[in-house]
Design a protein that fits this description.
Blueprint (H helix, E strand, L loop, with lengths): L1 H20 L5 E2 L7 E5 L2 E3 L3 E7 L6 E8 L2 E9 L6 E6 L7 E8 L3 E9 L5 E3 L5 E3 L8 H28 L5
């Protein structure tokens, strides 16, 4: 009887966890409430600047601004909306970012997004602060051998955990 109650409780917790996984944040380009996010220009060279503007937001509300894409996230800090629910902020895009399509996000009660196309600086290199050039950074891809090693390590750890659990049950260290 006690084991059945424990199994029922475990199943309930597992189902609740699965239900909550799907309850992630909503992404909006301008939802039904009139919220919107714009970037100008929509295409910029690495090392350039853009102006990010939001409107139709909650007044006097703080937003976290980030640039995400290419397996990278760049944080720009926070901005507070004015009394009319608007903000505007000039953002300096780091010069070391690789070319590609990114997403600017204004994260608050909801997350607003807008795409940004980033082009590499002159010939794949961008000017560095000291006057020289700095090569653009590209994310490192894992080789199949590295992924196989990770999979074997994870499987080994899961097996070891299962063996420890069985051993504990046999010795009476784990409650039924």
């Amino acid at each position: 009887m006690r084991r059945q109650l424990t199994l029922a409780a475990s199943a309930s917790v597992a189902l609740l966890g699965l239900a909550l996984v799907g309850a992630g944040p909503a992404l909006a380009h301008g939802g039904a409430g009139g919220e919107s996010l714009q970037v100008e220009p929509t295409t910029v060279d690495a090392g350039g600047t853009v102006v990010l503007a939001g409107s139709g937001l909650e007044p006097d509300n703080e937003r976290v601004l980030v640039l995400a894409g290419q397996n990278l996230v760049v944080e720009f800090g926070t901005v507070t909306t004015d009394a009319e629910g608007m903000f505007s902020k000039e953002l300096s895009i780091p010069g070391h970012l690789p070319a590609g399509t990114y997403e600017l996000r204004a994260i608050g009660d909801e997350t607003l997004t807008v795409p940004l196309d980033l082009t590499a600086g002159s010939a794949g290199a961008v000017p560095a602060a000291g006057g020289g050039t700095q090569e653009t950074v590209t994310p490192r891809q894992r080789t199949p051998a590295e992924l196989a090693i990770f999979a074997v390590l994870i499987a080994g750890l899961a097996t070891a955990g299962g063996l420890l659990l069985v051993r504990g049950e046999r010795l009476g260290l784990v409650a039924d």
